[in-house]
Amino acid sequence: MDKQTNLELQKIACHVRMGVIEGVFNAKSGHPGGSLSASDLYTYLYFKEMNIDPKDPHNPDRDRFVLSKGHCCPGLYSVLAERGYFSKEELKSLRHIGSMLQGHPNMEDTPGVDMSSGSLGQGISAACGMALAGKLDNKNYRVYCLLGDGECEEGQVWEACMFAAHKNLDNLCIIVDNNGLQIDGTVAEVVGPEPLDSKLEAFGFDVQTINGHDFEELEQAFQKAKTVTGKPSAIIMKTVKGKGVSFMENQVGWHGSAPNKEQYDVAMADLQKILAGLEEK
């Protein structure tokens, strides 16, 4: 990846994070922490990796994305708006009655959402079904699925992983947002699923572990995943929950809390400062 592309992706990711804050602030509820930790991943997928067209969101040959940790949809909505699926003004309607942007993704109402999700553990099963359908239909699309590390405590996740390996779904790539925090505390304290890498390998995946905030590493990992044959791929991203907002970083309380006006102003100032620094490069 050349420096200019890397820089542009960093700028886009900063705008995506601003959209997250805008959404949860106006909703007065939502899940900013895990949305911010995954913002670089969302940005890479929708602006570099995936074969998609905002003008044709139902193209049968498009790549698919399933947000298995559906509560982190403020980040997905923000990147979809940034990519042009709908107006960024819509982000202010997050979780409002009648809005197309509900508290969990709804494929019936939101352009660009490939699967309704929210009940943890179920999204990866849907992604497996999509990948198998692609194989049966001789399609070349790829399926990407984002899981939370806390979500990996769900038994259904591992049933789906076993299925994916059994069916040789090499068109499936799962990504684990390994930020170490979940709603009730640290992942290690609740029901620690580590070691995730060796567990996924034992379940038949090709596994890579990367810094989820480094676009060079993201590109290398996804490029390698596309060369894997005969088995599904897994990318474990080491990330910081609340990334980019000073008072949210690594704070479990921001898993599912919305900022007040004073906190909103601080968060936006933090992100504007990051963006200004990028603009100067």
TrEMBL record:
PROSITE patterns: TRANSKETOLASE_1 (PS00801). The keyword Metal-binding applies. Its cofactor is thiamine diphosphate. InterPro entries: THDP-binding (IPR029061), Transketolase_CS (IPR049557), Transketolase_N (IPR005474). Pfam families: Transketolase_N (PF00456). Residues 11-262 form the Transketolase N-terminal domain. Belongs to the transketolase family. This is Transketolase. It comes from Clostridium facile.
